[in-house]
From TrEMBL, chains A, B:
Annotated protein name in UniProt: Phosphoribosyl-AMP cyclohydrolase
EC number: 3.5.4.19
Swiss-Prot/TrEMBL cofactor(s): Zn(2+); Mg(2+)
Source organism of this protein record: Paracoccus halophilus
Gene that produces this protein: hisI
HAMAP family given in the database record: HisI
Entry-linked SUPFAM superfamilies: HisI-like
Biological processes annotated in GO: L-histidine biosynthetic process
Pathway(s): Amino-acid biosynthesis; L-histidine biosynthesis; L-histidine from 5-phospho-alpha-D-ribose 1-diphosphate: step 3/9; Amino-acid biosynthesis; L-histidine biosynthesis; L-histidine from 5-phospho-alpha-D-ribose 1-diphosphate: step 2/9
Subcellular location, record wording: Cytoplasm
Domain spans labelled Phosphoribosyl-AMP cyclohydrolase: 29-102
Amino acid sequence: MFDPASLKYDANGLIPAIAQDYGSGEVLMMAWMNAEAVARTLESGRVTYWSRSRQAFWIKGESSGHVQRLIELRLDCDRDCLLVLVDQTGPACHTNRRSCFHTAIRDGQEIILTEPQNPSE
Amino acid sequence: MFDPASLKYDANGLIPAIAQDYGSGEVLMMAWMNAEAVARTLESGRVTYWSRSRQAFWIKGESSGHVQRLIELRLDCDRDCLLVLVDQTGPACHTNRRSCFHTAIRDGQEIILTEPQNPSE
């Protein structure tokens, strides 16, 4: 059986988790999990991070409604990074954009790639 | 002009960088950059990480030939994570698999999704 304790966590007990849209392949965000967040994500099917700023579990979308349903959890060869395939409801980013990675560097300038979604979308 | 110093680095001066295949959308690996690695990546077009184990710059593929040509560098809303769209030659993973994320958790078991590529591929 997979044991979340078998992953490699950093000095703060955290592992980076990359959320990717299962359908489109779009990388939506990166956040952090501790072993308990990994376990809760697998058990509940609701992607659950550890909020470093709030020092609390963060069930993605609990307040915003922009939940991430777990499709599949993957780990990398070093067991120190997670890839979380998700079914994302609405925008993943707190700026109301689908992805947090909405800024590109082009010709040395920062270019905004997407505008915030309409709340009704 | 974009200044790599404007990103948010951790206590070790590093920022996580997610490499994604520009064509397929596959997430290939996650590694770390410092400000100088970000600058070198943008200047050279060759994705360059900071190796925490070797404490040295790591021009991806320099020894293996499995280079990553930079297509576009993106940053997230918190400026503390990078998404690097790449043109990946050969496997990205040191196990000779295309992606480092080749293990999935299914029904509580670790499942290997892909086998190592033939060196001639």
